[in-house]
Write a structure and sequence with these properties.
Layout: E1 4-9, H1 12-23, E2 29-33, E3 40-43, E4 49-54, E5 63-67, H2 71-83, E6 87-94, E7 103-108, E8 114-119, H3 125-131
Length: about 130
């Protein structure tokens, strides 16, 4: 849907570490990187990228949602993001108010941005068996 999204962060080192760790379960890796004022490109499966750079002013909160192929990736994103210093803003789970298969997790990143991972796929049999006790 987009080519790239670029936004400023108040602590480039902390934000870079947070996003790389939190988005690793979704297959996101670091791409081209320059000076902090230029930033780093975070790349996933498609052609689109997320870029972040050192800004002098603290930006307004942003909500950005990353596509996850599976519900397990959503769970893994959530736990990786918390370990990377994110704050819980909604544990992994269904959000039927959006649609029946909207499975998402939300965390607040270092600059107060609401970062989401979402899977739109119905539950798979292997997911059910591994999560039912």
């Amino acid at each position: 849907m987009f080519d790239h999204v670029k936004f400023g962060v108040s602590d480039y080192v902390a934000s870079k570490a947070f996003f790389l760790k939190a988005l690793e379960p979704l297959g996101v890796t670091g791409g081209a990187e320059g000076e902090p004022s230029y930033g780093i490109e975070l790349c996933g499966k498609g052609d689109a990228s997320l870029c972040l750079y050192q800004a002098k002013e603290k930006p307004a909160p942003l909500h950005i949602a990353f596509h996850a192929d599976t519900r397990q990736q959503v769970d893994d994103f959530y736990h990786a993001a918390l370990k990377a210093g994110g704050k819980d803003n909604g544990a992994p789970g269904l959000r039927p108010n959006y649609h029946a298969n909207y499975y998402a997790a939300f965390v607040i990143g270092p600059d107060g941005h609401n970062v989401e991972a979402v899977c739109h796929e119905p539950v798979s049999p292997s997911f059910c068996s591994s999560h039912i006790r």
